Amino acid sequence: MAAESKDSPAQGKLVIRNIGLALSGDVAAPVLDADTVVVIDGRIAAVGGADSVDTAGADTEIDAQGCAVCPGLIDSHCHPVFGDWTPRQNQSNWVEMNVNGGVTTLVSAGEVHLPGRPKDAEGVRALAMTAQRCFRNFRPAGAKVIAGAPVPELDFDRDFYESLAAAGIRHIGEIGLGTVAKGPDAKRVTGWCRELGIETIMHTGGPSIAGSHHVTVEDVREAAPDVISHINGGPTAVPHEGVRELVANSPAAPEVVHNGNERAALTCLAAVQEAGRLAEMLIGTDAPAGSGVQPNGMLRMVTLLASLGGLDAAQAFALATGNVARKRGLDAGFLRAGLPADIVFFDRPEGSGGRDVLEAVTLGNIPGIGMVMIDGKPRTGRSRTTPPAARVPSLA
Question: Which residues on neighbouring strands pair with residue 48, listed in sequence order?
Answer without folding.
Answer: 36
